[in-house]
């Protein structure tokens, strides 16, 4: 059985939903960020950065959402094109695009302390919003041409990752749902039983879509 160290609504969310989609038994280990459990000596032995998710699979311990996602989809040969297939490169491109373009911008948006400041001046906060909006526009263009999913008609784990990032925009001045093709993908993912189960288990309410 897998062990997943998680906190509700964080970057562990995509891995939690993926495990549900894969119908894999998992022991969920909740870390209370309010009391800094992710910075405990015990957890830092698993991930020195003190971040979730961390997945334990027997003797294998992994962190970083994209790495865990690729590990699980390849191991179970579901929700991703198989290595060597014609769509594999496109799938990998989408995962890397999201990881390299959205994740860093959201990290800055939520954690100004990473830059040594308590809160951003208005112009810098606006620039971060514009940076994220530019990524939404690029994704919306792609989905409008070749959607409804990132792999066209085929649902994949990449759509779970994108939906997680879209959820993170829910309290921003302009959310991802302002783009019609992104709205359509979000609605498709949020209509899945795995999404309802995820929300129930993590006790989430905002941006449910149901």
Describe the protein:
- The protein starts with a strand and ends in an 8-residue tail after the last helix.
- It is an alpha+beta fold and 210 residues long.
- α1 runs parallel beside α3, α1 runs antiparallel to α6 and α6 (157-168) crosses α7 (180-190).
- Helix content is 50%, strand content 9%.
- The chain has helices at 13-21, 41-44, 65-76, 88-110, 122-146, 157-168, 180-190, 193-202; strands at 2-6, 26-30, 54-57, 60-63.
- It folds into two domains: 2-79 and 195-202, Glutaredoxin, CATH 3.40.30; 88-192, Up-down Bundle (Glutathione S-transferase Yfyf (Class Pi), Chain A, domain 2).
- It has eight helices and four strands.
- The chain has a four-stranded mixed beta sheet with strand order 2-1-3-4, with helices on one face.
- β3 (54-57) and β4 (60-63) form a beta hairpin.
């Amino acid at each position: 059985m897998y062990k997943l160290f998680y906190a509700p609504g964080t970057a562990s969310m995509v891995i939690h939903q993926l495990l549900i989609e894969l119908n894999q038994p998992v022991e969920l280990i909740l870390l209370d960020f309010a009391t800094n459990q992710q910075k405990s000596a015990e957890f830092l032995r698993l991930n020195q950065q003190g971040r979730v998710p961390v997945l334990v699979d027997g003797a294998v311990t992994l962190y970083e959402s994209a790495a865990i996602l690729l590990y699980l989809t390849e191991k179970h040969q579901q929700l991703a094109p198989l290595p060597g297939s014609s769509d594999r490169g496109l799938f990998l491109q989408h995962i890397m695009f999201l990881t390299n373009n959205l994740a860093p911008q959201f990290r800055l948006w939520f954690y100004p302390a990473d830059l040594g400041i308590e809160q951003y001046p208005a112009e810098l906060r606006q620039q971060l919003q514009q940076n994220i909006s530019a990524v939404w526009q690029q994704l919306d263009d792609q989905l409008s041409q070749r959607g409804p999913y990132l792999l066209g008609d085929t649902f994949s784990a990449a759509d779970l990752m994108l939906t997680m990032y879209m959820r993170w925009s829910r309290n921003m001045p302009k959310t991802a749902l302002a783009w019609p093709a992104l709205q359509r993908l979000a609605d498709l993912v949020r209509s899945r039983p795995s999404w309802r189960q995820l929300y129930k288990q993590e006790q989430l309410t905002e941006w449910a879509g149901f």
